Amino acid sequence: MSSPLAPSVTEIIIEGHVFPPAVKPPGTTKSFFLGGAGERGLEIQGKFIKFTAIGVYLEVSAVASLAVKWKGKSAEELTESVEFFRDIVSASHTDLEEYTPFPIGFSKDGLLPEKGKVVIENKQLSEAVLESIVGKHGVSPVAKQSLASRVFELFKETKPLKEYHHGWCI
């Protein structure tokens, strides 16, 4: 996925599940790159039990648009910044009139489903889903840290845009 318009990212493997560097999700003509990934789990009787692997994919223009405000911050600062993830979740710096429906697919075998199981067409609900993963009290701190670290690295090779639009999917 290396082109002048697409960031160079690698796959991430979580407990044997491979998140490819780029996807074209069902229900959209847009391609997305892997922003980050991590597991979701719960500590039960002193042992961390992993039960879900989560990948967060961003539209190609997301890095340049986020760089306007966030380039220059460290990976640690991004990881700890509620506002950084809120910008990703709400796309507050984009044209809010343009909204892409949010397809969700589930897979047991590690393959991207051909069709989404459900499409969230409500912007607020789709934001709430992503917020539940990487927001202030998100269920996957590992995905949150992965997303911040990878975007930080991509900022190094990105020039910020003055006008932009980005989207996301999980």
From TrEMBL:
Reactions accelerated catalytically: a chalcone = a flavanone
Top-level lineage group: Eukaryota
SUPFAM superfamilies: Chalcone isomerase
Boundaries of every Chalcone isomerase domain copy: 14-94, 103-153
Pathway(s) it belongs to: Secondary metabolite biosynthesis; flavonoid biosynthesis
Keyword Isomerase found: yes
GO biological process: flavonoid biosynthetic process
Single GO molecular function: chalcone isomerase activity
Keywords carried by this UniProt record: Flavonoid biosynthesis, Isomerase
UniProt family annotation: Belongs to the chalcone isomerase family.
Job description of the protein: Catalyzes the intramolecular cyclization of bicyclic chalcones into tricyclic (S)-flavanones. Responsible for the isomerization of 4,2',4',6'-tetrahydroxychalcone (also termed chalcone) into naringenin.
Protein name: Chalcone-flavonone isomerase family protein
